[in-house]
Design brief:
alpha/beta; TIM Barrel; nine-stranded parallel beta sheet; 34% helix
Length: 410
């Protein structure tokens, strides 16, 4: 018997085993449990019930962070978010102090969407301007540190959309030209429901890449400009406060019924990681008895958001407010009075209607206009917030320079 004949079966068995090993190593798609053992933040393509379906391309699913209680945050511009050296300094500030959250611009007054988007309907608007090319990865890195990520959208201030769709814009009184405020910024008429759907698309896209919360700013009518030469093509026959109430309700219904979370939906209140939504308000909304001419009424916004954030910056209150010649010089008193009024109105609404209302979470001032603001002024505002029974707050600084010594060490 020849050598090959004698060893034919063992050789064939070895070759078969060798081929099988090569097949296993270089054909992972045939072994889905291994191929789809994805890194954190990735999972299979899923349908609305969370069941997998046939595609070899993994779908990114963020590991969302639950809303911290108390929430203590800072604001970050898109330009800083797109500059690693700058944003890393702010992340370190969060790491080293009591801070646990960050609000990041995703659409400012320019109207540009600052991160890569994939929704073809949204892309067709042409409003993408990628300032933060790695936004998805940045949010993932925040989540790994258990930092809560909030996307800020400047809503009705939108220079780009006005240029693209002037028919939706706030106009001069004659209706022949786009109206602009004192800063030269143009606005969309808040009554344009077509534009509401655009904001919903942006919100869902932000959710898809990992943001835990969407924060809506400039959800109001214009206030600074020639108010004698202004008209609204969609809001001329409806009171401003009602226009805004309808927008609040629409936003709530669209984003809480289907927030774009790529996982099985759960009823409100039963999914702590569902998308949260928050609304920025003029600071005066807590004390004013009307809509201030901009459509904002506290009782109209409280039922439709998880959080309402009055911008109670002492520098922005008018002279003689509560008898103060310069309210900015009285940070504790101004914030305490404003938020105490807000708390009382919120509690009254809840008790008389039986509604669940938003938690109040003020924006506090970490900048100075007529005077310098340092640790004492920042801490005074935080103390005022706490003294009226509130625990959460966010610091605003347009320059993104924050008073670290005003914050408690981690």
């Amino acid at each position: 018997m020849s050598f090959l004949s004698k060893h034919k079966l063992p050789i064939i068995a070895c070759v078969a085993i060798f081929i099988f090993v090569l097949f296993f190593l270089f054909s992972p798609k045939l072994f889905s449990d291994h191929y789809f053992s994805a890194p954190q933040g990735l999972t299979l393509n899923t349908n609305s019930q969370g069941q997998t379906f046939g595609s070899s391309t993994p779908v990114f699913v963020p590991a969302y962070v639950a809303t911290p209680e108390p929430l203590k945050g800072i604001y970050m511009t898109s330009w800083v978010a797109g500059t690693p050296s700058l944003r890393n300094n702010l992340v370190k500030l969060i790491d080293d102090t009591e801070l646990n959250s960050v609000v990041i611009d995703i659409k400012d007054y320019s109207g540009k969407i600052v991160f890569p988007i994939s929704n073809p309907t949204l892309l067709a608007f042409g409003s993408q301007e990628i300032r933060v090319k790695d936004m998805q990865d940045f949010i993932s890195s925040l989540h790994q540190k258990n930092i809560y990520a909030i996307a800020r959208i400047a809503v009705f201030q939108d220079a780009y959309f006005v240029k693209a769709r002037p028919d939706l814009a706030v106009k001069n009184k004659a209706g022949t030209a786009v109206w602009k405020d004192h800063k030269g910024i143009s606005w969309i008429d808040p009554g344009s429901r077509e534009y509401w759907d655009y904001i919903i698309l942006i919100s869902r896209e932000a959710r898809k890449i990992g943001f835990d919360e969407i924060n809506f700013d400039y959800i109001r009518f214009p206030s600074d400009g020639n108010m004698q030469d202004i008209s609204y093509p969609f809001s001329s026959t409806t009171p401003k406060a009602e226009v805004m109430r309808q927008f609040f309700q629409y936003t709530h219904d669209k984003l809480t019924q289907d927030d774009g979370t790529p996982s099985p939906r759960q009823p409100l209140g039963q999914n702590e990681n569902r998308l949260k939504i928050s609304a920025d308000m003029f600071g005066m909304v807590t004390t004013a008895g009307d809509d201030m001419g901009i459509g904002q009424v506290l009782e109209n916004v409280l039922p439709y958001f998880d959080y309402v954030a009055p911008m109670v910056y002492p520098s922005h209150y008018p002279p003689t407010f509560q008898g103060f010649a310069m309210p900015e010089a009285h940070p504790y008193d101004v914030v305490h009075f404003a938020m105490q009024s807000g708390v009382k109105r919120s509690e009254l609404l809840a008790s008389t209607t039986g509604q669940t209302v938003a938690q109040l979470r003020p924006w506090l001032q970490d900048f100075g206009l007529k005077m310098d603001y340092g640790p004492a002024e920042v801490r005074a505002q935080i103390k005022a917030t706490n003294d009226v029974g509130l625990t959460s707050w966010i610091l605003w600084s347009a320059s993104n320079k924050y008073t670290a010594s005003a914050l408690q060490a981690e």
